[in-house]
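Design job #97: recover the sequence.
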């Protein structure tokens, strides 16, 4: 839920760059996003309503070239905003968790996660 509330703000730079790729002006795109972001932010903070930034972008003709890109598969894909987190988790598991569990390998043989009691 929290991610969905913040994702539109996180995706603003991606929206700007998508506009630039479609021959839009970076300055104009930045200003348009800034205005829409402030409006959406006010709705969230002052009225307690959900973040409607994406809908505002979809209703602004300036952003028409990227309307089709405002999907979870493209510009609004949460995976675009996690940085190195997946690799860092994998590195942590390999460097810290697996060595810590290694002495207990025999006791864990055949045990599923639903059976482990801490």
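Job complete. Output follows.
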């Amino acid at each position: 839920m929290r991610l969905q509330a913040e994702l539109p703000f996180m995706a603003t730079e991606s929206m700007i760059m998508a506009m630039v790729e479609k021959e839009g002006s970076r300055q104009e795109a930045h200003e348009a996003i800034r205005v829409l972001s402030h409006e959406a932010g006010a709705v969230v903070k002052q009225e307690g309503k959900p973040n409607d930034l994406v809908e505002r972008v979809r209703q602004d003709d300036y952003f028409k070239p990227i309307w089709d890109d405002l999907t979870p598969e493209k510009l609004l894909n949460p995976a675009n905003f996690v940085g190195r987190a997946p690799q860092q988790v994998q590195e942590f598991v390999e460097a810290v968790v697996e060595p810590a569990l290694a002495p207990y390998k025999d006791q864990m043989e055949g045990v599923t996660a639903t059976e482990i009691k801490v």
